[in-house]
Automatic annotation (TrEMBL):
Entries under SUPFAM superfamilies matching the protein: Metallo-hydrolase/oxidoreductase
Gene3D superfamilies referenced in this protein's UniProt entry, alphabetically: Ribonuclease Z/Hydroxyacylglutathione hydrolase-like (3.60.15.10)
Organism field: Aequoribacter fuscus
Alphabetized GO MF terms: 3'-tRNA processing endoribonuclease activity
Protein name: Ribonuclease Z
Amino acid sequence: MQANSFDKPREGASLVLIETPDLKIETFAVDHSPVDPAVGYKFTYKGRTTLITGDTVKSDTIIQHSKGIDLLVHEALAPNLVGLMHKTAIKKDMTVLAKVTSDILDYHASPMDAAETAKEAGVKHLLYYHIVPPLVAPGQKQLFLNGAQDVFENYTIGQDGVLFSLPAGSSDVNLVQTGL
């Protein structure tokens, strides 16, 4: 493999990175300010499409590029859980953690944001990834979702090793492996 650099596309536009008869890979700018540049990727292979948001807030750009896709892989940060971490960091005089848990809320989408995006774009399945904070305790998944499951029901909370199959010539979105 070899990395190839490219210029970040202008807001709302996409840039085709690879195009063959079976495969098309596109990139588009996402809002992750103050971190810039930031991009998402859309993969179309034999008529099946997956979009990976990259780190971003909820945006019309994600909705636009996700219209009717098979699998939306959307990052998600749970503000309710990060808020608890923030309060604890303040109580324990952990200034660096308090600063981080305050700042990161401004440039990440929540599970609700991702669910609303998936619903509005009409995607078939939503895979949450880049989960913040990590979900390690029983019952934490419901706290993470915080009602998002009622907005968009076809979702999977990602973890290492999750695997989907999007068979060519089909509309199936198959969860093959839930994790390692």
